[in-house]
Amino acid sequence: MDQQKAEPTPFTSKTNSQTNGNGTSPRSGRARLIPGSIAFLVFLGIAALYMSATHLLNRDSVSVSMSSRHANDTPLFPITVSLSPLAAPQDTSTDAMPSFSVNVTLTNTGDVTLVILKWHTPFAHGAPAMGIFKVTDLWWGTAVPDMGLMVDYLFPEGGIFVHKQGNKTSDNLLLIRPGEGLSEEVKIGRSAMSIKRGKKYSVKAKGRWMAVWLGEDDNGRYSMRDSINNGQFESEAVEVQT
Q: Any idea which fold 77-90+97-241 has?
C-alpha cells in the first residue's frame, strides 16, 4: 500500500492584516468609515439648525412687516379726506401771484363722534406752506416745493382743550358726528408755493393727525393724554388748471 506524502501547509501569521480582493484591509476600511459617518451626521445637524433658524427669522420678518404696514399705512380713524378743485378768480394784474383753490372735506365714516385737533391738518392755517398739500407739475412730473414752514403751537394749560365755552367755540378743535362732514376752501400758491399760470397740477393732502378723540365729552373738555395721535391721512389726487 502506497503511502501518500503529506505536503506541508503554509503557516500564516494571525498578526498579519487580511486583505480583500482589491487589496484593501476591511479593518482599515471600517476605521475610515466611522469618522466619515460622524462628519456626515454633524453636517445634517448643522443643516437642520440652519433651516430652523431661517424659518424663524422669516416668520418674524413677516410679522414685523405686517405690523409696520398696519401702523404706518392703515388709518386708525374712520376719517376720509377728499379734495375737489374750485375755479380760481381771474386776477389779471401783473403783481398778483398765481394760485388755485380746492375744497377740502373731512368726512366721519364711522359710528362715533370724532374730535380732531386742527394742527397739522388740511384745515390748519398755513397748511400749504407747511407741506400738508403735495403739488406736482404734471408737465414735468416734478414736485412743487413748499416753504417748509415750521409752526410751534402753544398748548393750553394742562394740555386740556375746551371745545365750547359759553358762546365761543374753539378754533383748535373740529367736531364731526357720524356720517357728517366738514368742508373748507383752501387757496394754494402765492407766497406759500411757486405756482405758475397756464399749467396743470395734481394736488393731494397728506399727513398725520396730531390728536383725535373718539367720542364726545359731556363737558367739552379733551385732554392730550386721552387722544390718539398715530393715524395718517391721505386724499386722492385731483387735477387743477391755473
A: Immunoglobulin-like (2.60.40)
